[in-house]
Inverse folding.
């Protein structure tokens, strides 16, 4: 059976060699292809680099080739990872931390990004923020359209089994919580 490739100049690839094997690590290290491949090792000697004649300043790094960006001044609290020394020059301020979710985020950013509590607290803050927003809507006498905001219509249309499963799990949890609270009263 022929192997067909779209990017090859020849539509059909050669048949693989039966019983073929790849080179060992030692054999790969001993292979010198410098004479066979154009441009091999061209980054070793600046005289052989194709970009050197056109390069305005080959010794200058990328950070100096562009004009400096003026540091944006924060007008609201901005969380910064403890791994980074300073804020990025430009950052978003559309959703400043506030309320209980903001306090949880404050605590989360005391941990390194490589630690699980950092991410778990950020996930918790997101969930708390959703509840805060619903409560805020109700306080303004605006009934949120939870079906639309939670994407339940799309879930019903494209993932009906998942939605039914989620509703069933939520129902079992609520019933279990009610039974647990009732058993503690007696």
């Amino acid at each position: 059976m022929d192997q067909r490739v779209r990017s090859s100049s020849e539509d059909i690839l050669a048949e693989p060699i039966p019983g073929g094997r790849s080179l060992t690590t030692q054999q790969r290290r001993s292979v010198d292809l410098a004479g066979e491949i154009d441009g091999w090792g061209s980054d070793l000697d600046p005289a052989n680099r194709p970009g050197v004649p056109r390069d305005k300043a080959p010794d200058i790094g990328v950070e100096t080739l562009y004009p400096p960006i003026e540091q944006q001044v924060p007008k609201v609290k901005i969380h910064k990872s403890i791994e980074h020394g300073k804020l990025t020059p430009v950052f978003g301020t559309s959703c400043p931390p506030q309320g209980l979710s903001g306090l949880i985020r404050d605590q989360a950013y005391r941990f390194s990004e490589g630690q699980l509590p950092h991410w778990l607290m950020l996930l918790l803050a997101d969930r708390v923020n959703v509840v805060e927003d619903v409560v805020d809507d109700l306080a303004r006498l605006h009934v949120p359209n939870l079906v639309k905001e939670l994407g339940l219509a799309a879930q019903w249309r494209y993932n009906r089994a998942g939605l039914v499963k989620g509703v069933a799990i939520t129902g079992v949890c609520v019933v279990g919580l009610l039974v647990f609270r009732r058993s503690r009263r007696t």
Notes: Residues 1-8 have pLDDT under 50 and may be disordered. The helical segments are 25-30, 99-108, 116-139, 146-149, 152-158, 160-185.
